Amino acid sequence: MSGLATPIKSSLLLLLLRVNAVHSWRRLLDIRKQSRLLTGIISCFVVGYLVLAFALFYYGLRFIAKFPGLGAVLTERLLYTLFAFLFALLLLSNLIIAYTNLFRNRETAFLLTLPVSNQTIFNWKFIETSILASWAFLFLIAPLLVAFGLVRDVPWHFYPLTGLLIGLFIILPGVFGSALAIAIGRHLDRKSFQVMLLLLALALLAFVAFWWKTNPVDDELLDQRTLEALDRLLAKTRFTMFPFLPSYWLSGAVLQWAEGITNNAIFFAAVLLSHTLFFGSLAFTRFGTLFYDTASAVQSRANRGFQFHFFRAAESGFAPPGFLERLFDKIPFLQPDTRAIAVKDLRMFWRDTTQWGQSVMFFGLLGAYIINLRNFTHQLTSPFWIHAVAFLNLGACAFNLASVTTRFVFPQFSLEGRRMWIVGMSPMGLGRIVLTKYWLASLASLAVTLMLVTLSCYLLKMPGSDIAFFGAVVTVMTFALNGLAVGLGVLYPNLKETNPNKIVSGFGGTLCFVLSSVYIIASLVLLILAGGGLRGGPEWVLAGVLGFVLLSFLLGWLPLKMGLKQLKNFEA
Question: pTM here?
Answer without folding.
Answer: 0.72
